[in-house]
């Protein structure tokens, strides 16, 4: 007679044999040594490759107008109804809110949400759109400082997260990030590094995407910025 414990252990053994990597994404690159790796001759291309390896997507566009078109298309493609919009030096240059309203989407600016209603508003969003402080080519990571107008919840709670960055914001290596920000006022109270969609593998050793955060990650890189 098979007990519930035996059945559970059998599922664990099957999961171990099957492996737990994403089948649709290429394997992550093998690091040859510990230490500085760099980002290769084309930082944007390396970032795109490394983000794809962990299940995210990069869209390299020529200019700000193309960035508005691409973000709008992403919102349409996921059938979003409510958009949570953050801020950033580059993102603020885009007439993105007006375009999204034209598409009959409800746009909520994160900086205008009061603390008493933030939880319900953030959880109700279908897509979060934010600027970033830096991108790291070596690991395919986004770097976001916690600020009132760009809270961490913006990249954590909506099921789809879209980041907008300029090519000039791409750093070669994680070591370069801490060289740039260093100690002092540039180091915010919270620093978030996002590398691909949310994943967990602690349930029966099966890799599951989108459990503790967004299941879809998109990064729009503006080549001219």
Textual characterization of the structure:
This protein has 225 residues and is α/β, with parallel strands linked by helices. The chain has one domain: NagB/RpiA/CoA transferase-like (Rossmann fold). Helix content is 29%, strand content 22%. It is built from 7 helices and 12 strands. It has helices at residues 4-18, 43-53, 64-77, 96-102, 118-124, 153-156, 174-181, and strands at residues 57-61, 82-85, 106-109, 127-131, 134-136, 141-145, 160-166, 170-171, 191-194, 199-200, 208-209, 216-222. The chain has a 6-stranded parallel sheet, with helices on both faces. Strands 8-5-6-9 form a 4-stranded mixed sheet. Helix 4 (96-102) links the parallel strand 2 and strand 3. The chain is globular. The chain starts with a helix and ends with a strand. The model has no long low-confidence stretch (mean pLDDT 83).
Give a summary of the structure in a few sentences.
This protein has helices at 4-18, 43-53, 64-77, 96-102, 118-124, 153-156, 174-181, and strands at 57-61, 82-85, 106-109, 127-131, 134-136, 141-145, 160-166, 170-171, 191-194, 199-200, 208-209, 216-222. The chain is α/β, with parallel strands linked by helices and 225 residues long. It has one domain: Rossmann fold (3-Layer(aba) Sandwich).
Keywords:
6-stranded parallel beta sheet, 225 residues, Rossmann fold, single chain, 29% helix
Radius of gyration: 19 Å
Note the run of SSEs as H and E.
HHEHEHEHEEEHEEHEEEE
Q: What spatial order of strands do you see in the largest sheet?
A: 1-12-7-4-2-3
Q: What is the fourth-level CATH superfamily?
A: NagB/RpiA/CoA transferase-like
Question: Given the C-alpha coordinates, what overall shape results?
Answer: globular
CATH topology: Rossmann fold
Major sheet: 6 strands, parallel
Overall structural class, as computed from helix and strand content, comes to alpha/beta
Tell me the name of the CATH class. Answer: Alpha Beta
Please indicate the count of domains: 1
Q: Helix fraction?
A: 25-40%
- Low-confidence spans: none
Question: How confident overall, as mean pLDDT?
Answer: 83
CATH architecture type: 3-Layer(aba) Sandwich
How many helices? The count is 7
Strand % is 15-25%
Q: How far is the N terminus from the C terminus?
A: 66 Å
The total of beta strands comes to 12
């Amino acid at each position: 007679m098979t007990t519930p414990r035996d059945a559970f252990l059998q599922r664990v053994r099957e999961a171990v044999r099957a492996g737990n990597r994403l089948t649709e994404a290429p394997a992550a690159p093998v690091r040859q040594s510990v230490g500085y790796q760099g980002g290769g001759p084309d930082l944007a291309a390396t970032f795109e490759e490394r983000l794809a390896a962990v299940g995210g997507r990069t869209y390299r566009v020529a200019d700000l107008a193309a960035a508005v078109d691409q973000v709008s298309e992403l919102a349409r493609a996921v059938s979003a109804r409510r958009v949570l919009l953050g801020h950033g030096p580059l993102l603020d240059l885009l007439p993105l809110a007006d375009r999204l309203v034209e598409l009959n989407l409800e746009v909520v600016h994160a900086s205008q949400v009061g603390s008493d209603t933030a939880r319900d508003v953030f959880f109700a969003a279908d897509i979060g759109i934010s600027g970033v402080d830096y991108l790291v080519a070596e690991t395919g990571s986004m770097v976001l400082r916690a600020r009132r107008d760009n809270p961490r919840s913006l990249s954590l709670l909506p099921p789809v997260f879209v980041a907008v960055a300029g090519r000039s914001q791409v750093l070669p290596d994680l070591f370069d990030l801490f060289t740039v920000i260093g100690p002092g006022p540039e180091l915010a109270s919270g620093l978030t590094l996002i590398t691909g969609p949310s994943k967990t593998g602690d349930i029966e050793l099966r890799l599951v995407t989108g459990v503790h955060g967004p299941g879809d990650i998109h990064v729009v890189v503006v080549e001219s910025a």
